[in-house]
Structures are given as structure tokens and as C-alpha cells.
Amino acid sequence: MAGKLYGLGVGPGDPELLTLKALRLIRESDIIAVPGKEAKESVAYQIAAQAYPEIEKKTVIAVDMPMTKDKAALQASHRAGADLLEGYLKDNLQVAFLTLGDPTVYSTYLYLHRLVEQDGYPVEIVSGITSFCAAAARLNIGLVERSEALHVIPSTYRDLSALELPGTKVLMKSGKKIAEVRERLREQDAQVLMVENCGMENEKVYRSAEEIPEDAGYYSLIIVKDR
After folding, report:
1. Contact 8, 124 (CB under 8 A)
2. How many C-beta neighbours within 10 Å does residue 115 have?
3. How far apart (Å, rounded) are the C-alpha atoms in residues 164 and 168?
4. Is the predicted pLDDT of residue 65 greater than 70, yes or no?
5. Which residue, 186, 199, 204, 221, shows the most beta carbons closer than 10 Å to its own?
6. What is each CA distance from 28 to 49, 117, 163, in whole angstroms?
7. Tens digits of per-residue pLDDT, 189-215?
């Protein structure tokens, strides 16, 4: 009998946003998997450890998921990661893979999830608090109201023409393009807000495009609202 793989969303950063279901499954799982090269350096692990310090007593494995757009390298890393997880599932062990935010939103876990499922193992996704919902709550604003549309834009992977769409725009994964994004937002007749490291100790809030620094970190999320 094979074990089961759970993809657990641990939320954006605040350990108190870890769901009761995720916490229970972390307690019950034999193996804890996290993305990265060093397990305890994973942000997802550090969030879970604050809510459940006993996680240190469990077997924790790191699944290296390189940040690259090279398709061949990505496919190889996904296959290697799936094989690593399946090695434990074959022994009837329950594996919880921790991922930031929600596993269904731009999560590298999804690639492993599909491969493991295709190979015939039981899998399940457990939702977590999304970064854009947490950021809106931190800013004390609503994301969308009445008939407003919500657009979630991975700004690293596409041009910024989506900023012309009506409704609220959420910019994720700005990364190295943050300076370009900021300049484009300065031209917008819109309310621009950004939360960096939402829910973490080094959280910062910016309330205009002008305030956004060029060296903003990877965990920066921008909300653009029509005036």
C-alpha cells in the first residue's frame, strides 16, 4: 500500500495564518518536504516551525526546485523531485510538502503533484491563505467589490499591458523587473500599494508607486486599484 502526498499551503508568512487542517497534517505526516537546497532555510519550513516547533523532530527533506526558465532543466528537476517523494510513498509513508501561500497559485509544487499523481500515488491539495488576500487585509482594503474584476498578473513572465484591464490588478513575481514595474505604475491613474514580506518580521508597506524601492525583495506583492 502506498503512502499519500499532501501539498500544504502554509500561508504568506504569519504563522498564525496556518490553517488547522495544515497543522494537523504536519503533525500526522511521517515526512515533511520543502522546496530548496537546505530544508531548514526554506521560508515555508520556518513558518511551520513557528506554529509547530516539534517539526524539528520529524524527517525533513529538501526538494531542489531551481528558479530558471530553461524548460529542460525544469523538467529534469521536477522528475527528480517526484522520484524523491515517491521513494517515501512506496514505503507507505505520508508526505506533507509545504509551500508558501496556496498550492494552487503559481506554486512549483503543482509540477510534482501532477507527476506523482500520474505515477499512480494518492495526492491531495490543502488550501492556504493567498498572499494577495493577506496583503489586502494588511492594508485594510478590499480587493474587489460589486462587479469589479480581479486580475492576478505574474509580471516576470509577461509584458505589463494587463495593467490596462479594468478592475483590481495584483502583480506577483515582479522580482528583477521591479524598477520597470514601478516606472509603469507611475504613469497609471490608479491607487498603487505594495506589501513586502507580508506577515514576516521584516514586513514593509508602501502606499504609492513613488515609494516602491528598486531593491524590493522577492516576496513583494503590488495591488493596483482603479480610482
Report:
1. no
2. 19
3. 10
4. yes
5. 221
6. 15, 21, 43
7. 899 999 999 999 999 999 999 999 988
